[in-house]
Design a protein that fits this description.
There is one protein chain. The protein is an alpha+beta fold. It folds into two domains: 114 residues, Galactose-binding domain-like (Jelly Rolls, Sandwich), CATH 2.60.120; 210 residues, 3-Layer(aba) Sandwich (Rossmann fold), CATH 3.40.50. The protein has eight helices and 17 strands. The strands form three sheets. Strands 1, 3, 4, 6, 9 and 11 form a six-stranded antiparallel beta sheet that branches. Strands 2, 5, 7, 8, 10 and 12 form a six-stranded antiparallel beta sheet that branches. α7 links the parallel β16 and β17. It starts with a strand and ends in a 5-residue tail after the last helix.
């Protein structure tokens, strides 16, 4: 027998990590890496969900399966667990852009119970594109599998860093989108600075509108910003370095206003065919320093782009996480466990 719990009732036993819209009847997200987690004593756990996306189930830190959610239904997360203490995490490991995903309620075996869950005081926000999403990371080659099947944000550098530091996080990342210009000029109305204004960017990109984000409701200690790859790739005219630097510095200024006291880690990588991103981000870093800002650091990373459509593979994502993690920890004051 299963007991049904509505999200409209007491849901204090649940942790929602990432960017979510809370409604009286459901929780809604489009963000990669958005997570629902419980501690349970055993038995069977199912979530009532809807949308068109993949979710990674993690049990006590072990990846056990991926679930494809389509129509509204109860999806089994765990089945017949022996009595014990289990941390169950269900992570939105694909991307809803455009689109949206829903969690309506939860079922747990009547003989079992929810256990207290500890929430982290550490907060990190990641701003990025497909590299940050973990686009195609599970593909064994550049043309192996589909985007939906091979994308897994739990294997992106962003998720790996947050998990290693045991931090609460938000991943505001959008495949194909840039700071000034999107890849090959696609969807010019929706570059990253416009998408991050919304709680559920996938709704906005679907021209459904949606609530504007309340930045004061969740303030990170550190922001990791890895944008610009799509500005300088694809057909069509790319922004000038001056235009990109101006937009980048304006974005940082807005984040400082929204997140008082936040620290920034600017990330860049070599962009094919010309190495235009690294010098542009370096200029941003230098101009911010000259302006007197001491809340900022910069790192350059490189990757082996043998996964789907020339994206970083699992090994490269893990290596980027290894390189960036110490700097994130330093900026956030997370050095002691």
């Amino acid at each position: 027998m299963l007991a049904i719990h509505s999200l409209a009732s007491d849901f204090s036993h649940t942790q929602f990590v990432g960017l979510w819209e809370e409604n009286s009847n459901f929780y809604r997200t489009s963000a990669p890496g958005a997570k629902v987690s419980f501690r349970i004593s055993g038995g069977k756990l199912a979530l009532e969900m809807a949308g068109n996306s993949y979710w990674q189930v993690i049990l006590n830190g072990k990846h056990v399966k991926k679930i494809l959610v389509t129509e509204r239904a109860f999806y089994t997360i765990t089945d017949s667990l022996a009595r014990g203490n289990y941390l169950v995490e269900i992570v939105h490991c694909s991307e809803s852009l455009p689109g949206e995903s829903f969690v309506y309620g939860v079922q747990l075996s009547k003989s079992e119970e929810f256990l207290p869950i500890v929430k982290s005081s550490r907060r990190i926000e990641f701003i990025g594109d497909s590299y940050t999403v973990g686009y195609g990371v599970e593909a064994l080659g550049p043309e192996e599998g589909t985007v939906e099947e091979t994308t897994n944000t739990t294997k992106s550098y962003a998720y790996l860093i947050a998990e290693k530091l045991r931090a609460d996080y938000r991943i505001s990342a959008f495949s194909g989108r840039g700071l000034v210009r999107n890849y090959a000029g696609i969807e010019p109305k929706w570059p990253i600075p416009e998408l991050i204004k919304y709680t559920v960017p996938g709704m906005a990109a679907s021209d459904k509108g949606g609530a504007l984000r309340d930045f004061s409701a969740w303030v990170p200690s550190v922001m990791v910003i890895f944008v610009g790859i799509n500005d300088f790739q694809g057909e069509g005219e790319h922004p000038s370095q001056a235009e990109f630097v101006k937009a980048y510095r304006e974005m940082l200024s807005k984040f400082r206003k929204n997140y008082p006291g936040v620290k920034f880690l600017l990330v860049a990588t070599k962009v094919w065919p010309e190495d235009l991103l690294i010098p542009a981000v370096q200029q941003v870093f230098e101009e911010e320093n000259k302006a007197g800002f001491k809340d900022i650091a910069m790192k350059v990373v490189y990757s082996e782009n043998t996964a789907l459509h020339g994206h970083p593979n699992e090994r490269s994502q893990a290596e980027m996480a290894r390189i960036l993690l110490p700097e994130v920890a330093r900026l956030g004051g997370f050095l002691s466990r």
